[in-house]
Amino acid sequence: KFTTIVEENIDMEKMDMSFMMEKMNMSHSTLYRKIKSLTGMSGNELIRKIRLKNSLRLLMEEGHNISEAAYASGFNDLGYFRSCFREEYGMAPSEYIRLRKSQD
């Protein structure tokens, strides 16, 4: 359910655990414990991971440019998006796109 709520509100830049607590009708500690036990991540980490997967899909399948994919996935700061992308995928978004296109 958590993932579905994030995906339905993916472009909402202010999505955080307070928003998720309200949507899921759970306390912060209960929601944190459930997410941590199921994924090994905090709620904010999981939100970020879902957003990054969405941005990757937009870049690769729908042909969006980097800023369009970032903003459509709820990242309002391109520098932060690039930093998160590099941390998750080991390279900058532009490098990832270049690498994928060279493999096709």
Automatic annotation (TrEMBL):
Residues 1-99 form the HTH araC/xylS-type domain. Pfam families: HTH_18. Keywords: DNA-binding, Transcription, Transcription regulation. GO terms for molecular function: DNA-binding transcription factor activity; sequence-specific DNA binding. SMART domains: HTH_ARAC. This is Transcriptional regulator, AraC family. It comes from Bacteroides cellulosilyticus DSM 14838.
